[in-house]
Amino acid sequence: MKRIGVLTSGGDAPGMNAAIRAVVRKAIFHGVEVYGIEHGYQGLIEGSIKKMELGSVGDIIQRGGTMLYSARCEEFKTEEGQEKGIQQLKKHGIEGLIVIGGDGSFRGAKKLTEKGYPCIGVPGTIDNDIPGTDFTIGFDTALNTVIDAIDKIRDTATSHERTYVIEVMGRDAGDLALWAGLADGAESIIIPEMEDEFDEVIERLKRGHERGKKHSIIIVAEGVTSGVDFSKRVEKATDLETRVTVLGHTQRGGSPSGRDRVLASRLGAYAVDLLMKGKAGCMVGIENNELVDHDILEVLNREHSIDIDMYRLSKELSI
Ligand code: ADP
């Protein structure tokens, strides 16, 4: 392989830049040329493709977002769109592609592989919702952003003796809510992987109030319901004054944490190694701190799961 491409697709995540940097530098280290494809699959179809040099990825390791931009592209889900992408890859002499993104982006990568273009997926999403890796790039940074926000909310919650409902991202996964809840000592954590435990939440709130607790923090994952709706239910079931904070896109931004930079560097470089070895249609990941790779389809057919022990612990510690 003499020339490869790299793109970022789907929701952006802090650390994507560090992954791009690792891909470019590792490929050049191997004597392979790298082309950056801007705006994900949309840019691939449109031919928004440029050669990357060592200097192209200088001074980006500490930056959030993605220097290659990201996009969602409905057209790429069609055979026609994929054909257009392949024409562009052929035109630029690109022999293999590294796709940094989430599960949707991986499905696109698998389609290209099936059509004869070897692709490797690098998991980049704050949701941590991809099976086959303990952590995705961006999760740790987003977690720290959420913790920082909840710490601040806790100050005002204490001053005003209120119940706070905080809605966090994660799409259909509860990892961000669970980790942030445990890290912040939240009274209740509402995540899509567990049954509706509304009665238990109310019971815990009342119990806390009776023993003089001045405030409560409830974390709701966006995959369950909106924070606004949940707080209305709480107010209806109790006499407690409730406030809602939707953390929203602040969770997707910011300088990547040390952990995310290291993870992105390792996974990006490993993806290049695999492509050089002739592997295709797989995603890279980290399990028990070891670099691993799995077939994309096999991984995407698996159900995402959360750490049940962690969930139980969060309950035990917030009695
Ligand atoms: P993420 O990668 O973060 O999960 P999306 O699910 O929005 O984000 O997917 C990103 C892009 O990947 C989509 O806009 C589309 O271009 C491409 N994609 C998603 N699913 C498929 C599919 N089944 N086949 C081909 N391309 C897909």
UniProtKB/TrEMBL annotation:
<keyword id="KW-0021">Allosteric enzyme</keyword>
<comment type="subunit">
    <text>Homotetramer.</text>
</comment>
<keyword id="KW-0418">Kinase</keyword>
<feature type="binding site">
    <location>
        <position position="103"/>
    </location>
    <ligand>
        <name>Mg(2+)</name>
    </ligand>
</feature>
<feature type="binding site" description="in other chain">
    <location>
        <position position="211"/>
    </location>
    <ligand>
        <name>ADP</name>
    </ligand>
</feature>
<feature type="binding site">
    <location>
        <begin position="21"/>
        <end position="25"/>
    </location>
    <ligand>
        <name>ADP</name>
    </ligand>
</feature>
<feature type="domain" description="Phosphofructokinase">
    <location>
        <begin position="3"/>
        <end position="275"/>
    </location>
</feature>
<dbReference type="GO" id="GO:0061621">
    <property type="term" value="P:canonical glycolysis"/>
</dbReference>
<keyword id="KW-0547">Nucleotide-binding</keyword>
<feature type="binding site" description="in other chain">
    <location>
        <begin position="213"/>
        <end position="215"/>
    </location>
    <ligand>
        <name>ADP</name>
    </ligand>
</feature>
<feature type="binding site" description="in other chain">
    <location>
        <position position="222"/>
    </location>
    <ligand>
        <name>substrate</name>
    </ligand>
</feature>
<dbReference type="GO" id="GO:0042802">
    <property type="term" value="F:identical protein binding"/>
</dbReference>
<feature type="binding site" description="in other chain">
    <location>
        <position position="154"/>
    </location>
    <ligand>
        <name>ADP</name>
    </ligand>
</feature>
<dbReference type="GO" id="GO:0006002">
    <property type="term" value="P:fructose 6-phosphate metabolic process"/>
</dbReference>
<feature type="binding site" description="in other chain">
    <location>
        <begin position="185"/>
        <end position="187"/>
    </location>
    <ligand>
        <name>ADP</name>
    </ligand>
</feature>
<keyword id="KW-0324">Glycolysis</keyword>
<comment type="function">
    <text>Catalyzes the phosphorylation of D-fructose 6-phosphate to fructose 1,6-bisphosphate by ATP, the first committing step of glycolysis.</text>
</comment>
<keyword id="KW-0479">Metal-binding</keyword>
<feature type="active site" description="Proton acceptor">
    <location>
        <position position="127"/>
    </location>
</feature>
<feature type="binding site">
    <location>
        <begin position="102"/>
        <end position="105"/>
    </location>
    <ligand>
        <name>ATP</name>
    </ligand>
</feature>
<dbReference type="GO" id="GO:0070095">
    <property type="term" value="F:fructose-6-phosphate binding"/>
</dbReference>
<dbReference type="GO" id="GO:0005945">
    <property type="term" value="C:6-phosphofructokinase complex"/>
</dbReference>
<keyword id="KW-0460">Magnesium</keyword>
<dbReference type="Pfam" id="PF00365">
    <property type="entry name" value="PFK"/>
</dbReference>
<feature type="binding site">
    <location>
        <position position="243"/>
    </location>
    <ligand>
        <name>substrate</name>
    </ligand>
</feature>
<comment type="similarity">
    <text>Belongs to the phosphofructokinase type A (PFKA) family. ATP-dependent PFK group I subfamily. Prokaryotic clade 'B1' sub-subfamily.</text>
</comment>
<feature type="binding site">
    <location>
        <position position="11"/>
    </location>
    <ligand>
        <name>ATP</name>
    </ligand>
</feature>
<feature type="binding site">
    <location>
        <position position="162"/>
    </location>
    <ligand>
        <name>substrate</name>
    </ligand>
</feature>
<keyword id="KW-0067">ATP-binding</keyword>
<dbReference type="InterPro" id="IPR035966">
    <property type="entry name" value="PKF_sf"/>
</dbReference>
<comment type="pathway">
    <text>Carbohydrate degradation; glycolysis; D-glyceraldehyde 3-phosphate and glycerone phosphate from D-glucose: step 3/4.</text>
</comment>
<dbReference type="GO" id="GO:0048029">
    <property type="term" value="F:monosaccharide binding"/>
</dbReference>
<feature type="binding site" description="in other chain">
    <location>
        <begin position="249"/>
        <end position="252"/>
    </location>
    <ligand>
        <name>substrate</name>
    </ligand>
</feature>
<dbReference type="InterPro" id="IPR000023">
    <property type="entry name" value="Phosphofructokinase_dom"/>
</dbReference>
<dbReference type="InterPro" id="IPR015912">
    <property type="entry name" value="Phosphofructokinase_CS"/>
</dbReference>
<feature type="binding site" description="in other chain">
    <location>
        <begin position="125"/>
        <end position="127"/>
    </location>
    <ligand>
        <name>substrate</name>
    </ligand>
</feature>
<dbReference type="GO" id="GO:0005524">
    <property type="term" value="F:ATP binding"/>
</dbReference>
<dbReference type="InterPro" id="IPR012828">
    <property type="entry name" value="PFKA_ATP_prok"/>
</dbReference>
<keyword id="KW-0963">Cytoplasm</keyword>
<dbReference type="GO" id="GO:0003872">
    <property type="term" value="F:6-phosphofructokinase activity"/>
</dbReference>
<feature type="binding site" description="in other chain">
    <location>
        <begin position="169"/>
        <end position="171"/>
    </location>
    <ligand>
        <name>substrate</name>
    </ligand>
</feature>
<dbReference type="InterPro" id="IPR012003">
    <property type="entry name" value="ATP_PFK_prok-type"/>
</dbReference>
